[in-house]
């Protein structure tokens, strides 16, 4: 059987003013093969997948590419692929494009949703789904036509452990029916049993690699960092919120003091992102009270005092260069030397070489670092980070950890981090003063 994908001396270059993203890439994905590409944040992994999907302009490519059969692609940020208001039409879209008999669509849609582990009615609004569930939805849309080639950009980044197991099952099923899989991943451990070929991007080229697996996760710290001191910075009492038939929160309580670092874990759709939006004043609960420095939480009162990095960083980027993006909040708050602050933040986060770049042309991980830097330059009292390590390689994660630790020590900044991968070796067990889990609409300590 011929290869599902064959790349020969492929190079990617977006314009003449910048160096090539990748050069001389040779790759063949055959039946029953799963190829995993690893590499630093911003090294070109997503660009290579976009090229394989046929989604880059011809003028950006040089070399040869052959692809046989249908390909299904899931981007790193699933929100950029969702077109419809409800789950059913979104999943069926590829079937409509392929001219499938409408009478056959409901069964195919149901099978794809089950395979992607998204047990929701087809009339569910897509806007109500968490990012992890959005990823499952886009995955179902890619699977519904039973493609011969599946292209996955960081499939584990947005998913909880159950979701990662579902993706592993999808990969296994595709390989068993003679398909091929090409994926990029910083955290490939959940899929390692199905990966047949390993590659690493180095010096703008694709090189064979040994399996890249994370070390054993660290034990939870026996001696926690010192808890925050002084009066409460943020207090939440008896918070309740209902979305349709789903009770998201029921009697949720939370107190955060200056200098604390709190980790909140939970599965996809458990309410982690919703909680950060309530704490930032962007969403009002049905009942309960949230105060910051004894004042009711409201955007006008929080400006410059609370920073929020969204799960989808591109949603909060708007300036034409990274430098202007980093300096914006500091300038708006009236702090001295906003551009100098921006350059310091860029250096600390390892993105100084991106200052003249447009934020929307950056990789997902680079956008995340830019959004974080833009929050830090305004020196907030409380920093809310919604799944902040998705899309970042190990070095970038360690760098972020160091920056947050330094800000806590220097200014007493409090940090709340959400995540769905509590067993990760990058969990930084020595960083958090408390670890909590959303369960039954409330927060409970993690033992």
Automatic annotation (TrEMBL):
It holds the Pfam family ABC_tran. Belongs to the ABC transporter superfamily. One of its GO terms (molecular function) is ATP binding. It comes from Pseudodesulfovibrio mercurii. Keywords: ATP-binding, Nucleotide-binding, Transport. SUPFAM superfamilies: P-loop containing nucleoside triphosphate hydrolases. Gene3D superfamilies: P-loop containing nucleotide triphosphate hydrolases. InterPro entries: AAA+_ATPase (IPR003593), ABC_transporter-like_ATP-bd (IPR003439), ABC_transpr_CbiO/EcfA_su (IPR015856), ECF_ABC_transporter_ATP-bd (IPR050095), P-loop_NTPase (IPR027417). The keyword DNA repair does not apply. Residues 5-228, 234-446 form the ABC transporter domain. GO terms for cellular component: ATP-binding cassette (ABC) transporter complex. This is ABC transporter related protein. The keyword Transmembrane does not apply.
């Amino acid at each position: 059987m011929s290869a599902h994908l064959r790349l020969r001396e492929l190079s990617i270059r977006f314009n003449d003013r910048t160096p090539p993203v990748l050069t001389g890439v040779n790759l063949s994905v055959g039946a029953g093969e799963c190829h995993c590409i690893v590499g630093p944040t911003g090294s070109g992994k997503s660009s290579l997948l976009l090229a394989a999907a046929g989604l880059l302009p011809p003028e950006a490519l040089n070399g040869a590419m052959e692809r046989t059969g249908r390909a299904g692609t899931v981007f790193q940020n699933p929100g950029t692929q969702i077109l419809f208001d409800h789950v059913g039409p979104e999943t069926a879209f590829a079937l409509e494009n392929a001219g499938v008999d409408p009478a056959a669509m409901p069964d195919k849609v149901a099978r794809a949703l089950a395979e992607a582990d998204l047990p929701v009615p087809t009339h569910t609004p897509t806007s109500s789904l968490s990012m992890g569930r959005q990823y499952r939805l886009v995955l179902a849309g890619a699977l519904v036509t039973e493609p011969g080639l599946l292209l996955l950009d960081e499939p584990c980044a947005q998913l909880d452990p159950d979701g990662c197991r579902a993706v592993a099952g999808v990969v296994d099923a595709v390989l068993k029916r003679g398909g091929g899989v090409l994926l990029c991943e910083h955290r490939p451990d959940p899929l390692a049993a199905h990966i047949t070929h390993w590659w690493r991007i180095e010096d703008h080229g694709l090189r064979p690699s040994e399996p890249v697996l994370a070390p054993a996760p660290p034990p939870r710290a026996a001696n926690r960092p010192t808890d925050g001191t002084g009066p409460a910075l943020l207090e939440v009492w008896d918070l309740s919120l209902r979305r349709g038939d789903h009770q998201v929160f029921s009697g949720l309580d939370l107190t955060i003091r200056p200098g604390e670092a709190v980790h909140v874990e939970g599965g996809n759709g458990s309410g982690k992102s919703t909680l950060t939006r309530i704490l930032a004043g962007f969403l009002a609960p049905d009942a309960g009270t949230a105060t910051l420095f004894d004042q009711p939480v409201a955007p006008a009162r929080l400006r410059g005092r609370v920073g929020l990095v969204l799960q989808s960083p591109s949603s909060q980027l708007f300036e034409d260069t990274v430098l202007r993006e980093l300096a914006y909040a500091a300038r708006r708050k009236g702090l001295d030397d906003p551009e100098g602050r921006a350059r310091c933040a860029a250096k600390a986060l390892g993105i100084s070489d991106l200052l003249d770049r447009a934020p929307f042309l950056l990789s997902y991980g680079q956008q995340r670092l830019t959004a974080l830097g833009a929050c830090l330059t305004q020196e907030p009292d409380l920093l809310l980070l919604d799944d902040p390590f998705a899309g970042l390689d190990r070095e970038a994660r360690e760098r972020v950890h160091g920056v947050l630790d330094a800000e806590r020590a220097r200014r007493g900044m409090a940090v709340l981090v959400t995540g769905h991968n509590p067993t990760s070796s990058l969990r930084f067990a020595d960083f958090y003063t408390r670890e909590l889990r959303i369960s039954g609409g409330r927060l409970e300590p993690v033992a």
